[in-house]
């Protein structure tokens, strides 16, 4: 899933030039993918609860690969390649809906307690590792031709599908959720009683992805237009903030256990780092100081995302975990979807206004985390407060 967007970031300026697109049009190649995924994720979340995670993941990976193939064939053979790219990217988004969010639910199924937090930290780190490697891989493939990136998706999807098929073993004592109406009533009960903290955690995760992909979109354009840097060097530079986020995510996931107060403190610290970073970038023009200060926002994201993952996965019962984590995946995808086009508008408006706006936004979300994030039953104890998801049938 991660490769679906990150690998395209380095090729966007060349795509824009080759197809004579506007900044907004080129940003739509990210947006249509993410919106399609966001819309379809709740559906596959319910189906994964109803049947099994693997039954959803494997066809989704195949669909993801087919979409990449269509997007790659368009520039190769069509007189109107942009339309085919958008069609292929939309199909890819539908496939991506059944990958990462369902994998998060599967992780919650297979691991418990502090081990669950540790593995979710690895999950977030591997998610980030895909982001680290993808701009480098995208830059390398662009040396052949910019649209060769799309042809890698079918191969990667096939390998992933085979690995899931043969190496993932779901637990056999799985219980199907209740009929759809009863299932929906239960979900409404969850959101009625726990909607405040769920909204806050969803917003926190979506904000991280929104800011990340918006900044990468800005940085990719800046490297070519202001610094005349492209090719593999551009990919390596784009990977720096992502590598910082990956490393922080892994360390955070291994340390937080099931301690909610620690998760909340780290998330608040993460939003403080992001606010300071984006606010400070207003005053920086040179590339090296820019990357150093930007890395502080990546540390912030690495602190926030594993904590949010653990809160959402640990506080929701297995019979609805697929839907609730998938809805969280939708919000993350929407963050990715809105990042490039909004940053595109902000770039046209003012660099200073762009960074101050984002810094203000992360500060507001941090305050919401401080005021609204109160979840019972995440201290690892099996008391009634951990079972709210069973009681609202």
UniProtKB/TrEMBL annotation:
<keyword id="KW-1133">Transmembrane helix</keyword>
<dbReference type="InterPro" id="IPR050189">
    <property type="entry name" value="MFS_Efflux_Transporters"/>
</dbReference>
<dbReference type="InterPro" id="IPR001958">
    <property type="entry name" value="Tet-R_TetA/multi-R_MdtG-like"/>
</dbReference>
<feature type="transmembrane region" description="Helical">
    <location>
        <begin position="290"/>
        <end position="311"/>
    </location>
</feature>
<dbReference type="InterPro" id="IPR036259">
    <property type="entry name" value="MFS_trans_sf"/>
</dbReference>
<feature type="transmembrane region" description="Helical">
    <location>
        <begin position="197"/>
        <end position="219"/>
    </location>
</feature>
<dbReference type="InterPro" id="IPR020846">
    <property type="entry name" value="MFS_dom"/>
</dbReference>
<keyword id="KW-0472">Membrane</keyword>
<keyword id="KW-0813">Transport</keyword>
<protein>
    <submittedName>
        <fullName>MFS transporter</fullName>
    </submittedName>
</protein>
<feature type="transmembrane region" description="Helical">
    <location>
        <begin position="355"/>
        <end position="375"/>
    </location>
</feature>
<keyword id="KW-0812">Transmembrane</keyword>
<feature type="transmembrane region" description="Helical">
    <location>
        <begin position="144"/>
        <end position="168"/>
    </location>
</feature>
<dbReference type="GO" id="GO:0022857">
    <property type="term" value="F:transmembrane transporter activity"/>
</dbReference>
<feature type="transmembrane region" description="Helical">
    <location>
        <begin position="26"/>
        <end position="48"/>
    </location>
</feature>
<dbReference type="GO" id="GO:0005886">
    <property type="term" value="C:plasma membrane"/>
</dbReference>
<dbReference type="Pfam" id="PF07690">
    <property type="entry name" value="MFS_1"/>
</dbReference>
<feature type="transmembrane region" description="Helical">
    <location>
        <begin position="265"/>
        <end position="284"/>
    </location>
</feature>
<dbReference type="InterPro" id="IPR011701">
    <property type="entry name" value="MFS"/>
</dbReference>
<keyword id="KW-1003">Cell membrane</keyword>
<feature type="transmembrane region" description="Helical">
    <location>
        <begin position="55"/>
        <end position="74"/>
    </location>
</feature>
<feature type="transmembrane region" description="Helical">
    <location>
        <begin position="323"/>
        <end position="343"/>
    </location>
</feature>
<feature type="transmembrane region" description="Helical">
    <location>
        <begin position="231"/>
        <end position="253"/>
    </location>
</feature>
<feature type="domain" description="Major facilitator superfamily (MFS) profile">
    <location>
        <begin position="1"/>
        <end position="377"/>
    </location>
</feature>
